[in-house]
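Wait, can you check?
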Amino acid sequence: MIALTIIILLLAALLLMSVGVDAAYSAQGFVLRAKAGFVRITILPKKQKDKPEKPKKEKKAKKKKEPTEDAAEKPKNSLGINKDDIFYFASLGLKALGRLRRRLSIDLLSLHLVWAAADPFTAATGYGRIAAILHSVLSLLRGAVNIRSEDITTDIDFTTDKMKIDVRVKATFQIWEILYMAFCAGVPFLVWYLKRRRTIKKSAKSEQTASAAA
């Protein structure tokens, strides 16, 4: 009985443990940090270790094997994912987030975007498109989670053709929230995957039957 109580307490402590991520992108590159409880880890950029240079050995050129007829005839194992499927996956994620809207939150969302193009017409057209996309994405995100601190700025530059973007996202979740979101999105994805596999197998069988009859 005591052992079972200890196991339950440890499991509850694990599910309630906070897991955080701090991701940023700028002209200097990616920065990614993670934390689990009191432990903090820097994933990117990786620390470079000074290693003694070893003399390079000349590698013999390997002969490339030509694909055989059997290998060429084998169809690629593809699920045929299209744009509609991508939007479907995105909706799954947003629905999973929406079910915990009062609980989930992003600590910081920062985006500084400067759209640039040397041609004024191209710059204005591109800026209009990116602004519309950004507005739609932010609207969906704000409806799914609670953003505690938000810093979004956009601008346009006609003097250069190099776009500038600085993004930073800080978020903290509990492990049970992550598992819940994975379950809510994973079950519908599994259903879609099984249906797509059946459709592919049926179409393959029908093609084989048609080719055999011909």
